[in-house]
Amino acid sequence: MIIKFIGAAREVTGSKHLITTDSGKRILLDCGMFQGKGLETDGMNRDLMFDPSLIDHIILTHAHIDHSGLIPYMYKLGFRGSVICSSATRDLCAIMLADSAFIQEHDTYTFNKRRAKKGLPLVTPIYTQEDAKECMNLFIGVPNNMKFRIDDNIKVRFTNTGHMLGSGVANLQIIENGIIKRIAYTGDIGRPVDPIISNPQPFPQADILITESTYGDRLHKDMQAAEEELLKAVIDTCVTRGGKLIIPAFSVGRTQEVVYAMNNFFNQRRLPKVDMFVDSPLAVNATTVFRMHPECFNNEFAKVMESDADPFGFENLFYVTRVEDSKRLNDHKKPCVIISASGMMEAGRVKHHLANNISDPRNMVLAVGYCAPSTLGARIMRGDKEVSIHGTVYEVRAEIRKIDSFSGHADYREMIDFLGCQDKSALEKTFLVHGDYETQKKYASSLNSEGYTNVEIPARGQEHIV
Fold it and tell me: CA-to-CA distance for 416 and 419, rounded, in angstroms?
């Protein structure tokens, strides 16, 4: 058996790891898009480094686009195998992949208008909305903790990671020559204190462990302290300065957590009476999917739902879907909060809100999640005085703040605790993926200090024979 690391190898996005068994079965662990590198990203996404028509199965840990976003492209190029994931992941992918395709079609149309004026050849989107719709026929939803038999020699079982709705460790058992090999691929690891999703669960013992390392060099603050920082940002911006608070947030997961925190402050009568807008059609649809999967909620959130029929809705909170309503927010003169995607500020409606508000010192941009180093969000967070948005340079005069603790990724201590269910002496190899290389080296050192041996940071294209 060979494991080939194709994406999220010494970087954060594009998760793809290909297992080829001795019998020739090809299993792809995740199928994510590379994000945040401009034109370079497009080329990396189109070059899969394998023939999609030869892939038998995709094992999908969760629905985030950097883990699922190239499945429609695989379909477009001939993939007709199965996509095995949790039921919640399947339902989220139905809306998230369609949204990804819509953005690509829209951006390509805009890009081609500029190319046509220059007499340059036109480009095509990586995939279309039709591709995103058709590929959903390949999805198989599997309950957590159920051993799903792929064939006589391969079984998979998902165990909750607490990263987002439906996320899970992919625990594979593969029989070759009468010997069972156990491979655990964590996908992204959540925090043990998520306000909505069930806590991460221990997972079965593995021989080969493939695990993320996004926050492998830092510790998060307490979640309650993070929520208080959120409330303070609302007061400082909207009450004290009379400005607009722009919160770039991923449509699935982060937006619901921010809205839920605001809802709790509203119920406690601590939230200032200012208009709040969730400006993202995907976030609106994702919130509906959240309501469909109470099996993913933790006990505390389930209890809240007994007394609060809608933890994602309250007075003065408005969900915006239509483009014309989104544009009207530019002329909204009163103090307000705008929560909009994407979280890394690389695409979507949030870029328009940044363009219209980032040069006003009364306003604030509040990041509540991870921004890859090359993204617009990272440039704003590191203090650049000027940034280019849609080809126009804007002076950054708004206040910039960041709250790491809302991140869906565990910090290095929380990740080490999560891996504590494994017998270190039984692990033949531990591979670190989905992380900046410098961060990964620090995390590898932390794991070595904890007694982990044979920790490796694979490069893109590297192969390992099991």
Answer: 5
